[in-house]
Amino acid sequence: MTTDSSVLSLVQAGVAWITLNRGPQRNALDIPTLKHLHTLLDAFNADPAVRVVVLTGNGRSFCAGADLAEWAEAEARGALETYGWTDTAHALMTRLHTLDKPTIAAINGTAVGAGMDLTLCCDLRIAAQSARFKAGYTSMAYSPDAGASWHLPRLIGSEQAKRLLFLDELWSADRALAAGLVGEVVADAQLHGHTTELAARLANGPTFAFAQTKTLIREGAERSLPEQLHAELAAGVLCGRSADGAEALRAAMEKRLPNFSGK
């Protein structure tokens, strides 16, 4: 495990764990933390030994969003619009959303503002029973600035997105599950173990096919059906040429489970 003042990282059995580690600040995102997370994601995306990325937090909060102390300091020196948080956050959210490897948010506590938006950029979201979700923007007389206005309508529908954003309600894990904001809710004590099991399943899967599938889903919303079918054909050809594609066919013919290499 490598340790940073704001982030912990560990790669084990094909799974890269990224843990926000700013307990006194409730894992709030200042610019150095945003940049460090971006660097880790770039490295893990390029590392063939990494086949899944898990994002979680230490302590009682998953992430409290933007670091308000850094925000206030920038405002005090007249640099609120130029100090760089938004551009840095946008770059991180884009990197996480477009990562080739499957991503899991293991939400251990409150996820607010950009902290919630981090979870929305992940492919799968598992919430501990004690997790809470809050947009946090309009209470600060602010509009969404880290992807919530794009992700939420797609995940939970326009009206529910507006309810969460306009009223700035604090949603429980169960309400988030009912709305479709998360895919699973587990007991707090089971969060790590359950996430580990899911990550292991993905890490043993066909990583290249996962990447093609992610791209198809991400880009498909902007295509017509014929265009998407053409893209599926092209992706399928690439998958068929992959090492895992060949292994899957051999395993089927030999009536055994495939042993995917992720290539």
From TrEMBL:
Q: Which Gene3D superfamilies match?
A: 2-enoyl-CoA Hydratase, Chain A, domain 1, Lyase 2-enoyl-coa Hydratase, Chain A, domain 2
Which CDD domains would you find in this protein's record? crotonase-like
State if Membrane is listed as a keyword: no
Q: Which GO terms describe its biological process?
A: fatty acid beta-oxidation
Alphabetical keyword list: Lyase
| Keyword Amino-acid biosynthesis annotated | no
| Gene Ontology MF terms | lyase activity
Could you name the domain of life of the organism this protein comes from?
Bacteria
Q: InterPro entries from the xrefs?
A: ClpP/crotonase-like_dom_sf (IPR029045), Enoyl-CoA_hyd/isom_CS (IPR018376), Enoyl-CoA_hydra/iso (IPR001753), Enoyl-CoA_hydra_C (IPR014748)
Q: Belongs to which family?
A: Belongs to the enoyl-CoA hydratase/isomerase family.
Q: What is this protein called?
A: Enoyl-CoA hydratase
Q: What is the lineage of its organism?
A: Bacteria, Pseudomonadati, Pseudomonadota, Gammaproteobacteria, Pseudomonadales
